[in-house]
Amino acid sequence: MIEAVRNGFRAFVGRYGLAVAVYIAAAMFVWVVLLIVLPQIAMIDTSFRGNVPASAVGGPDDGYTLSNYAAFVLGPMGNGNLFDVTILIRTLVAAVAVTLIDIALCYPVAYMLAHSATGVTARLMVLGLIAPFWINEILRAFAFRIIFGSTGLINEVGQATGLMDRPFDFISADVALYSSLAYSYILLMIFPIYNAVEALDKNQIEAARDMGAGTLRVHWRIVLPVAKPGIASGATIVFMLTAGALAAPQILGGPSSLWFTQLVYQWFNDAGNWPRGAAYATILLVTCITFVLLMMKVFRVPIGAIGR
Amino acid sequence: MSASSGPARATAVGYGLLFYLFLFGPLIIMTVTAFNSSSFPRISPWECFTTDWFGVLISDRRLMDGLWTSVTIGIGVVLIAVPFGLAGALALSEITPRLRSALYTVLITPVLIPGVVLGISTIVFWGSVGQLVGSGRAGIFFDGTFLTIAGQVTFVAAYAMLIFMARLQRFDPTLTEAALDLGATPGQAFRKILLPFLRPAIASAAFLTLLASFENYNTTVFTILADSTFTTALASKVRYGIDPSLSALAVIIIALTLIGAITHEAVMRRREALLKGRGVRSGLYASRAGRIAAHPATIFCLLVAIAGITVIRGSQYDSSVCRAEILEERRAVQERLMEEQRQRMRQQRESQPAAAAPSTAPGGSAPRNSSPFGGAFGGGLAPGGATGEPTALPAPTPGSPASNGDGTSETAPSNQSPFGSAFGSGLAPGSAGREDATPGGSPSPDDGAPPASP
């Protein structure tokens, strides 16, 4: 490992000079150590500490404890209130649902983009995909509140046309939240699938068709296997971002449904209990990563496929 | 493939259209609501065309202060994240495959882990560093701007790195070899060969990192501490009550995006045409005038000019007359309901003279109408009054209240208001704001009346 780093450094000195090599090494050190690794360690360290006032930090009372994690499992009273665990599970289930919705929405479009659209159409399609994402995340959630609110567009139109006799509460039913999250991450699902599907040789599809395969069969047997790494990559990104979303649940979440990130936020900013907040953040991180790794094992996708 | 068979193609096109409708629907709806005077962002019922929400947006102090904080942070993030991303991409290009995949995993992780986690780990870490070096709460390690830059660079630099990696894949390393063979120092090879090759990537990385920094909420909301950026100010605004000034903001962003996208398309087409040779594209590039007209700079200037004129025209547009009409309309509806209430009460009194207590309650609230915009307050105070479906009730002309009974003295001053009763009756009562329909806002006149306790 050390040897490999040293060799790499030498290669850089030979190729781009000492100054550039030193710069790259320094930047890598700051980025990896100061920005990525140490903060995570500090967070995990904090999560094992009690909530002591700033004056007592480092003092005799500032020891390690499991109380923050115990509080997550056992509830605030320590008697087995599973309120927080339920919220975590619900967040994960919702994130999976949003991911599945996005796969279903984006697969056909990515396929069309790769294999039917050409020239100006393709460029306009890509431009059309990107354009909505210049809009701020907050404004996207806001737009869905206009659409789905109790006096929002759908309720107004539905009542005006007589399709609905009373306003339906889309916010409480989490319809608005799910739509907004699915909408927000479409782009991050389409491009990985597109990259994977684009590599597919059209002749394979033609051949399958000539031999009598229907559209569904062609997709199931020919296109999907090629698209799989792309789908896995997109699904991982969408799942992680959905589970970690904060703005959309804050704006669109119903009164009774909290997102797990909101719990973290509350412990940190409203209750001022940093160790508890850090513990909850660690729980979220570990759970999400474990889940993603588990899914990749189940679907037999190598980890290296992510993010390419 | 699907292109060959008719129905399959129709399905595909139909699906594509639906998909893009889903993509653009929210943007279109936001755009339309920005110009409706209704204080809740909505399309129907349409009240007045107005440009006032842009003014409301610009006079929002917190948002505008946040904008400057965001710009500062954005510049800081770009200045750090782009060189970091470049360093990461270069490092990945030179090292052995094993180390390479390990480093790649470490560097790409911050993109995937929840922003909440990044924000917390950043403030916890730098907070303990601050304690270690003994700087107080006023030190840099407790400064929202510094912490936000640190937190955002962690993952934003990875975006830049991905862009540089994509560009570096197309770099021909023999170019550097050749430069070195011809006597260039390694430093010169870097500056004169590699950096110029990467220039387009540097531009797009800077743009993307600026955008990512500006947009970020999940990390920033923790690291900014007591301060606020544009996005966090926006989020608290949305959480605690929404109004169409947010739609106005969306319109501004959409307009900027459109200008950028059209200019970009012009640049792409020009590049394509130049690559293929000028004559290839039908005559447009053949004449000098055509070349100038199709030049991206011309198109850009034209778009900016259109936008500027629109802004100037829009800022001069005055919707106060229409707004006053709407208020007057509500007031009229309100007044009519009150009048009906009075009449009914009078009938009640006539039918049962025993309950003699003459209703003084309406008199107490009526003088309010003498102010020009009296209807607005009236509508707000008595929720039932402004809500819809009073159509079933008899509709007396509001400006000429039944001139008998106790109604006369109170309602008469209202006719002196600038807009009188001119706009009173011809308007659809059902269109008055439904968001005002707080619980109890049923159309039954009993709810809409002023407190009529005997």
TrEMBL record, chain A:
UniProt protein name: ABC transporter permease
Topology within the bilayer: Multi-pass membrane protein
Family: Belongs to the binding-protein-dependent transport system permease family. CysTW subfamily.
Chief localisation class: membrane
Membrane spanning stretches: 16-38, 87-110, 116-135, 175-194, 231-252, 277-299
UniProt KW Kinase keyword: no
Keywords: Cell membrane, Membrane, Transmembrane, Transmembrane helix, Transport
PROSITE patterns named in the record: ABC_TM1
Occurrences of domain ABC transmembrane type-1 (ranges): 88-295
Organism: Jiella pelagia
SUPFAM superfamilies noted in UniProt: MetI-like (SSF161098)
Gene3D superfamilies associated with the record: MetI-like
UniProt keyword Cell inner membrane present: no
Automatic annotation (TrEMBL), chain B:
Biased composition (Basic and acidic residues): 338-349
Lipid bilayer topology: Multi-pass membrane protein
Region of interest (Disordered), residue spans: 338-454
Keyword flag Cell membrane: yes
TM stretches of this protein: 12-35, 67-92, 104-126, 146-166, 197-214, 246-268, 289-312
Major subcellular site: membrane
Keyword annotations from UniProtKB, A to Z: Cell membrane, Membrane, Transmembrane, Transmembrane helix, Transport
InterPro entries: Bact_Polyamine_Transport, MetI-like, MetI-like_sf
ABC transmembrane type-1 domain: residues covered: 67-264
Entry keyword Cell membrane: yes
Bias kind Polar residues: ranges: 400-419
Ranges of biased composition (kind: Low complexity): 353-367, 438-454
Biased segments, Gly residues type: 375-387
UniProt-listed SUPFAM superfamilies: MetI-like
Subcellular location: Cell membrane
Entries under Pfam families matching the protein: BPD_transp_1
Family assignment from sequence similarity: Belongs to the binding-protein-dependent transport system permease family. CysTW subfamily.
Name of the protein this chain belongs to: ABC transporter permease subunit
Organism: Jiella pelagia
Lineage of producing organism: Bacteria, Pseudomonadati, Pseudomonadota, Alphaproteobacteria, Hyphomicrobiales
